Amino acid sequence: MTTPAAAVDAFLHHLAVEKGSAANTLRSYTGDLRRYVEHLNACGIDDLGAVREADVSGFVTALRNPGTGGAVPLAASSAARALAAVRGLHRFAARDGLVADDVARAVTPPALPAKLPRALTVDDVDQLLAGCIGTGPVPLRDRALLELLYSTGARISEAVGIDRDDLDVDGRTVLLRGKGGKQRIVPVGRPALAAVDAYLVRARPQLAARGTGSSALLLNARGGRLTRQSAWHALQAAADNAGLAAAVSPHTLRHCFATHLLAGGADVRVVQELLGHASVSTTQIYTHVTVDTLREVYATSHPRATARR
User: Fold this and answer.
1) Torsion angle, CA of 127/253/191/269, rounded to 10 degrees?
2) What's the predicted TM-score (pTM) here?
């Protein structure tokens, strides 16, 4: 028989000595696993081998809904972290022969609330794009990058992955390579094409001369393919130059692309295809941003939207 407390001690020793886990990791695992031991003790379980999947699920439920004992319910993220510690414990115990089976492997964490993306206004986007100041190769490249991100909804990794041959100027489309090797062709707006053309004519040849013939559309200062990190710095520099009060992230222009399309009346499934989302439920997170627009249209259009005087 292996008591839960003894198994926890052995697991924490394994993490500290054999895995070399960070102090913060050990601290959080210790707290979560001590709480798990207390839960098992309260259930009358003094042998880790006697724990069943339902007991582990019950622990997660108790964290989220502690009842009337005065304990504070944990957020879904905290409960998920605690479950990760418990699953690690049972995986370790099964591997080392302390128990016959890993009963925690099938227990799923509580669903995390979707974080609503922050989108800039159209005027803010114009201000951001104008933050690419200068006529040298780098500012011209950065303007082309940001215009492409906003025009196509591409992830930064997809934008820097574009090769010259992926851009169809006549057809005004670009081939994007997304997650899992999936490809999609998306339209490119005229302002973005104009920015890319200016970059190709006046900037890329200078950058390419410093490298060894990269096929990438967007090049760095040494003539190689632009990296995600450099693209992120370009976005930050443009935001700083534009004096934007709102925070920007690598996904800011992708958020804006989706939000502004939906606000303009685009069908959510069309936006799903443009973004390369496997499920429409992922795209629907953007629809909340258009509620104010819908409310405004409703208030000005519906005959009984406001009280009659």
Assistant:
1) -140
2) 0.61
